[in-house]
Write a structure and sequence with these properties.
The radius of gyration is 31 Å and the shape is elongated. It is 60% helix and 11% strand. Helix 1 crosses helix 2 and helix 3 packs across helix 4. Strands 1-3-2 form a three-stranded antiparallel sheet. A hairpin with a 6-residue loop joins strand 2 and strand 3. It contains six helices and three strands.
Amino acid sequence: MRHGKKFNHLGRKKAHREAMLSNMASSLLTHKRIFTTTAKAKALRVYVEPLITKSKDNTTHSRRVVFSYLQSKDVVNELFTTIGPKVAERPGGYTRILKTGNRLGDNADMCMMELVDFNESMLEAKSASAKAKAGSKRTRRGSKPAVKAEDATEVQEVEAVVENTTDVNEGSDETEEAKEVE
């Protein structure tokens, strides 16, 4: 029975699963974006986010702990020099999983997993929308003031008169055009 066992075994033995997650984490940290199945991405998120949290403090101990998971000096150096300082202000949630559809061969649910702070197109769109919000002033001009029940009938009558005059004006334009054609 699997009581209390909450992580996905991914159909692999322990050694194979740890090696696969280590390789996927190295690829994610190197390339900042990978394409994989949704199940593997969810398992990888649990694996890699604590490592990114450890990279916030650049000490020898934290480097050795991260190296025991990743087994690559280049990836550990990349994590502590570029990724760690960039996510230092973020309290968590360093990765994003975007579903891309199903794989053609076996219909597996595929996704793109990326580091949140390294998607340049989304960051540019976010900064542009922030500038637009900061630059524009929102007012409630043009809204009608509240009307009492007695005045409401008068307002409706005035609106009806205005609609009738526009209909009459439109009809007169048509007659003038018809006269010009003749």
